Amino acid sequence: MVTGSNSGIGEAIVTLFSRLSAQVVVTGRNADKVSRVALKCEQLSPLKHNQPYLDDENYLKEAKNYSVFQRVGEIDDIAKAVVFLASNASSFITGTNLAVNGGFLLK
Question: What domain of life is recorded for the organism (predicted)?
């Protein structure tokens, strides 16, 4: 169960879990949005979108300068990290902060 899964990072997480054949419970406050996300999960369609504040071209240009990869991270990048941490592949990982920031700390 992912709370707040009708938009943003929560939506990306449930969609990615769905693509990996996980059983998901989609929850949120807006029934129309929840229905839309639930349908997307059922269809296992890909998800790629930015947050609304990333529509500002000046912000995007400046933010890319802070990334080792010269791009702005997508919500899907965070969802992949969540899937990894929820999987058996991370079973020996404890008490760590996983920085999903495109190398922002290196610049």
Answer: Eukaryota
Residue 12 burial (CB count, 10 A) = 24
Give one word for 50, left, alpha or beta, with left for phi > 0 and alpha for psi -120 to 50: beta
53-94 residue pLDDT tens: 556 778 778 778 878 888 888 878 888 888 888 889 999 988
Residue 2 lies in a domain: no
31-43 helix and 8-19 helix, angle to the nearest 10 degrees: 30
Q: What is the pTM of this model?
A: 0.50
Provide the domain count of the chain: 1
Domain annotation covers residue 87? yes
| Residue 26 within a domain | yes
